[in-house]
Amino acid sequence: MDRHGDKFVSGAKDHLVKVWNLQTGKRVEKCNFKHPAPVQCVRISSTRVYSSCDRGLVKVWDLESMSLLRVVDAHRSSVRCLFLDELHLLSADVDGQVMAWSSSSDVKRCLMTFKHPKEVRSVSLVFLRVLTGCVDGKIRVFNFLTGDCLKVITAEAESVGILSVHFHDNGIASCCHVPHNQSRVDLGFRALRLRADVQAAEVKQGACHAELHTFGHFPSKISVVFSLQSM
């Protein structure tokens, strides 16, 4: 699900992408957007709707004409997360491949590919740095222009896995899943300080964080917050 202004977009296993008016609570009937497989992720901007599905397709729809503008058929597995800004679209699949695209429909080629050992659950682009959350429990920072992996941050054990990563101001927050067979003591909100500057031209390798606090949070998720500082 995603929201922009007074519009809200949703996607489901029925292969449909629906746009809703938040003022009326009713569906925008002319938006007949559909995929050939269950929809996994949706995003909306002021003029477009972006959606992905289990078939590995990413579709871009125009909200004014209600027409399909573009189909990205480059992934070979389910695309579970999307990121967009004014210039770029990033898509990530269960095979661990993140692909960057121009938001312009005139540019068809992939701008860059960022590879991971396992499924990527979350992707963001900040200051020409691609931030990803992988099910192996690691947050990775890539140089958007070169594709180089600048830093690997172990946020959680692989058995825990990362559900999503979010960037806000000078911090990175990740949401992680905890297996039900772990004790309640291990569940919580864990705050860490990350010594990394994603705005710098280069990011040094080395020790990157230290635990600050742990707070009870039950039953199944851990949130990890990093404060970004210059090295």
UniProtKB/TrEMBL annotation:
Coiled coil: none annotated. The keyword Manganese does not apply. InterPro entries: SCF_subunit_WD-repeat, WD40/YVTN_repeat-like_dom_sf, WD40_repeat_dom_sf, WD40_rpt. Keywords: WD repeat. SUPFAM superfamilies: WD40 repeat-like. WD repeats lie at residues 1-30. This is Uncharacterized protein. It comes from Tetraodon nigroviridis.
